């Protein structure tokens, strides 16, 4: 299904950081929502800031958000804990349209439903296997999966295991 | 030798004055009584007329408007009636009060985007959509909406009506739902920006014969009010108005 862009995306001033601070607040909030909705729709788990994405520009109206603007948008996202920088260089970030906690809960519920507690699954099985094809967490980025499993570990619902060079997890 | 006016004479004079005053008051009272009777008659006739043509008034916005105008011409304002004239007539909670509440809802829902400035056309479109499925849905006209808003204004709610063109019927009417008057200069700029939802200083200078400073000042005020946004990536700085921006208006 085609992503449905919000009205702001076709509004040229949306790509200029607004001088009126109240308006700017509305603008950044709209950008925040757009980034999250876009990533959710396209199952983007990691955002690369440098890459010129259709997200921060609209070729149809020939407008592009400046790097200062992009920086501000990412700041807002970080304040909302909806992104997390992959490293200090701030070139890439994880996008949490679902938080690691929410991913953890989703996966755990799936495991319970399938009666798969006390068995070991590989990470591959959890995110790429045929069985999970229709699940929301299919294709989940491995780093985020790990964070998700860590939240489950904290509540004693899972344990990450290394066996024979692969990573796996046992659920309780 | 002429007698100077004595106390008696003054007293007499006073009594006569009182009598005249009394007569005048009596006359006034009579006239007023006659007028009051006439008004009662008018009112009764009006209510009879309204009853008889109840369906027409309910269904037909043009007829409804003419009825209102007729009321106004004989000095009767059904909107001010405490008996709930319209609710009795149309059989729905106060018709205009209802519209007024819905107007507030639409304005609140959209003011984030348009800075509290909405065209009458978009307002009507959204009202009709919101009312759509209701059993007592009638055709509401621009006139109905304006009357409802005027009712709000009487309550001091911070609503104001801005006409971009001279005709009342025209859809070139803006409703401001945030307090803060837009003055004549602001309105001039809005008139020009309406067609394409944007304008530039050059255009304003050309059409209004203002100088740079005045143009910039008025535009800055519109930006400060949250009604205008700036586009810094056009050849010359462009000033946009979400209130007139079609894709926003047609959305939801």
Automatic annotation (TrEMBL), chain A:
GO terms of biological process kind: macroautophagy; protein transport to vacuole involved in ubiquitin-dependent protein catabolic process via the multivesicular body sorting pathway
The keyword NAD appears for this protein: no
Gene Ontology CC terms: ESCRT II complex
Protein location: Cytoplasm
Keywords: Cytoplasm, Protein transport, Transport
GO molecular function: protein homodimerization activity; structural molecule activity
Entry's family note: Belongs to the VPS25 family.
Name of the molecule in the record: Vacuolar protein-sorting-associated protein 25
Organism of derivation: Daphnia sinensis
Upper classification of the organism: Eukaryota, Metazoa, Ecdysozoa, Arthropoda, Crustacea
From TrEMBL, chain B:
Locations listed in the record: Cytoplasm; Endosome membrane
Membrane topology, record value: Peripheral membrane protein
The keyword Cytoplasm appears for this protein: yes
Key words of the record: Cytoplasm, Endosome, Membrane, Protein transport, Transport
Database matches in Pfam families: EAP30
A GO term from the CC aspect: ESCRT II complex
An individual GO BP term: protein transport to vacuole involved in ubiquitin-dependent protein catabolic process via the multivesicular body sorting pathway
Principal subcellular localization: cytoplasm
Family: Belongs to the SNF8 family.
General function of this protein: Component of the endosomal sorting complex required for transport II (ESCRT-II), which is required for multivesicular body (MVB) formation and sorting of endosomal cargo proteins into MVBs.
Subunit annotation: Component of the endosomal sorting complex required for transport II (ESCRT-II).
Record-given protein name: Vacuolar-sorting protein SNF8
Protein source organism: Daphnia sinensis
Lineage, broadest ranks: Eukaryota, Metazoa, Ecdysozoa, Arthropoda, Crustacea
